[in-house]
Amino acid sequence: xxxxxxxxxxxxxxxxxxxxxxxxxxxxxxxxxxxxxxxxxxxxxxxxxxxxxxxxxxxxxxxxxxxxxxxxxxxxxxxxxxxxxxxxxxxxxxxxxxxxxxxxxxxxxxxxxxxxxxxxxxxxxxxxxxxxxxxxxxxxxxxxxxxxxxxxxxxxxxxxxxxxxxxxxxxxxxxxxxxxxxxxxxxxxxxxxxxxxxxxxxxxxxxxxxxxxxxxxxxxxxxxxxxxxxxxxxxxxxxxxxxxxxxxxxxxxxxxxxxxxxxxxxxxxxxxxxxxxxxxxxxxxxxxxxxxxxxxxxxxxxxxxxxxxxxxxxxxxxxxxxxxxxxxxxxxxxxxxxxxxxxxxxxxx
Amino acid sequence: xxxxxxxxxxxxxxxxxxxxxxxxxxxxxxxxxxxxxxxxxxxxxxxxxxxxxxxxxxxxxxxxxxxxxxxxxxxxxxxxxxxxxxxxxxxxxxxxxxxxxxxxxxxxxxxxxxxxxxxxxxxxxxxxxxxxxxxxxxxxxxxxxxxxxxxxxxxxxxxxxxxxxxxxxxxxxxxxxxxxxxxxxxxxxxxxxxxxxxxxxxxxxxxxxxxxxxxxxxxxxxxxxxxxxxxxxxxxxxxxxxxxxxxxxxxxxxxxxxxxxxxxxxxxxxxxxxxxxxxxxxxxxxxxxxxxxxxxxxxxxxxxxxxxxxxxxxxxxxxxxxxxxxxxxxxxxxxxxxxxxxxxxxxxx
Lengths: 349, 349
What we know:
The structure is a homodimer of 349-residue chains.
Chain A: E1 3-6, E2 13-16, E3 53-58, E4 69-75, E5 90-92, E6 95-99, E7 103-108, H1 122-140, E8 147-154, E9 166-172, H2 177-193, H3 197-208, E10 212-215, E11 219-222, E12 233-237, H4 249-269, E13 275-280, E14 295-300, H5 308-312, E15 315-317, H6 321-333
Antiparallel strand pairs in A: 1-2, 1-6, 3-4, 4-7, 5-6, 7-9, 8-9, 8-13, 10-11, 11-12, 12-14, 13-14
Helix pairs in contact in A: 1-4, 4-6
């Protein structure tokens, strides 16, 4: 059973993977990178190489765990956490631990091994967002889970071990440090100012416009004022809403449109950059409706300065956010007449 | 002038490098890696390729900015911050900014392009620590600086752009988020328990012994209970002391001995891993003597999972800290009879 341990100073939680414990020699050479579409377990026709599907968006009449799907969700074959167990924390002197209970799911976003959310049609990205929502809400029903981390790694530099397009969802029995900090800061800001800090941010960004990348009816894409990374982009719902799980169907489609447009603009502007994105949302256990505001943070991985930053909490960004917003707006303006080709059916084994 | 900006939600500070503002095309290909000893600006005989030296430990009678040095400190030729300017913060709506005033120095640790602190004799590592202390204390005299970040990147994966052994010191007009958080948490723990949390940690680790790598008279090396990274190692002074700048001469030599031994053990145990290390110390402006405890954190960069972690504050570590401590103890026990060769004079242009 993996273990969750918390650091008594910083309060951060760490999963210690006690089961597949590595030895020093495991790090002597870089891990082999499997990127052969002929071996990819996420390509259609190889559904038997993943755990059984939990959810799928499929052709009418097609059977589970076979071809005919458009979006497919399975358990991670090598999960960081185990679904069985209890979550009572125990103290070890000054430390706290709990069993590594949690869910770890993979959202396979398309059948095409080589595509990317930014290159798929908006309606397909909408199907991916629907799958996110279905799984996010379903795991909310398990009272052991306090928080769900929904994220996507794109490109090897960003930590993607399989290149077939996919996202991940990790449901946790604890609230990660970053989420707890954001909640606390948002509550503090609300207490002093009587307004959600993200609502205040959206107001100020719309008034100045210099860091706005683009907006649609319900969402806005901005470069944050203190961006850590070149071309870091946040997507925020204009209407105050604490939890990602509260998205209505029209909001989900509006979000899909912005997500596709932003990723497409990044793709053309910086030549398919590696990136991570993370959904920032209120915990399952505390919907925090009045002071927190869910959003998505996209972090392109373009700079080598890495490692020092996460140890120090101190970042150096060589791109001015106002410039990045302009570059992305320009890139997007050239895309308006293009509809990306529906590449999802192009390949497969 | 670079700009320091703070994020209104997280409170983290970011340096926006407005002067050498990058364009999207700058990221199309990875930056060229200069690792030719024949071109290295830090090798002896090329002292004119760096800014003038600020401090050096030299052969008696040798002249500044020429050969004859053992350890040499210069300004960073491409500083993240500028030394000229004032540090009054100003508000931009909900945001705060200040001019990017600060010092950015490079400590060139040896003449040999190919060596490493873990392979140098202890007395030489002692000279490097002396240089750290001289510069750390000197910058404390500039009342504009609130904090100094002393760190080392080893290996390309860890962000070292030049492979010649060196450390860096960045003096800042603000306190970085991670330092502020640690101070706050340590103060809180002290308030509840009447003891420094790091002193409590040392007591518990010495009592259990399972995560202790080794110790000498004045320092202890441990694997933290909730280690973020495989083989993450902390070096802590056994005597409570808040600031790195307070190190006495015998303490500095004892620290150098532990640092050399730890890096040597890591080098042999995991085949010269890339790593970052960071000195965690009290701010210049608040020596915080009773509740904070300076220490060094070494973070080997062995896992690809990177980027998601710093966005989420949530880490997955595939090595059990108790196992890592054992592996490093074993590696160190094989080193006891070896004195590393004094490689520092082996090369040079």
